[in-house]
């Protein structure tokens, strides 16, 4: 059974309490919270203040995806805001191992996110230190983009790297996940599906989440 992590980026920000209540009632496992700084990605979303509101609105896991430069300067703020999992981008971290140690020493699970052009081989030496890989299946910055099919190859490669060493690392797929492609993504070896548009733009989000969960 996949872990389902709806991305609140696609929710209606004028009705966040309702959106949170809906997710709390649903089979969703995690809240996926997308942080964008207008520098690492060409868009700005929200920061720790809103994460703290989500933390108050749910007991589910808050999975915070930092699409920002110099994430080490903000790890403590996101911990204080209530993040359970904090992911940083490999492309933004010249001293990635230090970022991972910082996140873990703050008591959060540590994730590494990789852009579509970044080979999964680059994760080899850090894989034993992390809890999650966020394999981006679109170029980060916006919801509602189309899934890049080559991601399926990367999922298989990464899953083999994890299984060969019997590591406990989850593979999360982020971007363009739909009810049409989700089965293929899981069969390739993914554990976590992030879904923004396909949940929040659905006529019945609770039913859509249930269908993802039943895959
Ligand atoms: C993209 C974000 C994603 C995004 C997914 O930069 O990291 O989490 O919100 O949205 P959909 O599912 O609409 O592609
Ligand atoms: Zn994301």
Structural summary, described in words:
With 215 residues, the chain is an alpha/beta fold. Strands 1-8-7-6-5-4-3-2 form an eight-stranded parallel sheet. The chain is globular and about 40 Å long. Helix 2 packs parallel to helix 3. The protein is 33% helix and 20% strand. It has one domain (3-213): Alpha-Beta Barrel (TIM Barrel), CATH 3.20.20.70. It binds D-xylitol-5-phosphate (DX5) and zinc ion. The site of D-xylitol-5-phosphate has 22 residues, from strand 2, strand 8 and helix 7.
Quick recap:
The protein has helices spanning 16-25, 48-57, 75-81, 96-105, 151-164, 182-188, 197-200, 205-213, and strands at residues 3-6, 30-36, 61-67, 85-89, 109-114, 132-136, 170-174, 192-195. By secondary structure, the chain is of the alpha/beta class. An eight-stranded parallel β-sheet has the order 1-8-7-6-5-4-3-2.
Question: How would you summarize the topology of this molecule?
Answer:
Blueprint lengths: L2 E4 L9 H10 L4 E7 L11 H10 L3 E7 L7 H7 L3 E5 L6 H10 L3 E6 L17 E5 L14 H14 L5 E5 L7 H7 L3 E4 L1 H4 L4 H9 L2
Parallel strand pairs: 1-8, 2-3, 3-4, 4-5, 5-6, 6-7, 7-8
D-xylitol-5-phosphate binds next to strand 2, strand 8 and helix 7.
Helix proportion range? 25-40%
Query: How would you sum up the major sheet?
Result: 8 strands, parallel
Low-confidence stretches: none
Could you give the count of β-strands? 8
Q: Largest sheet, order of strands side by side?
A: 1-8-7-6-5-4-3-2
Counted by DSSP, the helix tally is: 8
N-end to C-end Cα span: 7 Å
The total domain count is 1
Annotated CATH homologous superfamily? Aldolase class I
Name of the level-1 CATH class: Alpha Beta
CATH topology: TIM Barrel
Evaluate the radius of gyration: 16 Å
Mean pLDDT: 98
What does the overall shape look like? globular
Give the ordered list of helices and strands.
EHEHEHEHEEHEHEHH
What CATH architecture label applies?
Alpha-Beta Barrel
The share of residues in extended strands comes to: 15-25%
């Amino acid at each position: 059974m996949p872990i389902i992590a709806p991305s609140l980026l696609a929710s209606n920000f004028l009705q966040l309490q309702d959106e949170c209540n809906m997710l709390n009632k649903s089979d969703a496992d995690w809240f996926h919270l997308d942080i964008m700084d207008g520098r690492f990605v060409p868009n700005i979303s929200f920061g720790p203040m809103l994460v703290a509101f989500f933390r108050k609105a749910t007991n589910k896991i808050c999975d915070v995806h930092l699409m920002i430069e110099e994430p080490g300067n903000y790890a403590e703020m996101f911990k204080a805001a209530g993040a359970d999992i904090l992911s940083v981008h490999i492309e933004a971290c010249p001293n990635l191992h230090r970022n991972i140690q910082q996140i873990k020493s703050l008591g959060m699970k540590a994730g590494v996110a990789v852009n579509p052009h970044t080979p999964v081989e680059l994760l080899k030496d850090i894989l034993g230190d992390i809890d999650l890989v966020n394999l981006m299946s679109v170029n980060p910055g916006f919801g509602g983009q189309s899934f890049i099919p080559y991601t399926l190859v990367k999922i298989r490669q990464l899953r083999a790297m994890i299984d060969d060493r019997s590591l406990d690392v989850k593979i999360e797929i982020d971007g363009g996940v739909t009810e049409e492609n989700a089965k293929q993504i899981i069969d390739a070896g993914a554990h976590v599906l992030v879904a923004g548009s396909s949940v929040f733009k659905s006529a019945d989000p609770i039913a859509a989440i249930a269908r993802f969960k039943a895959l």
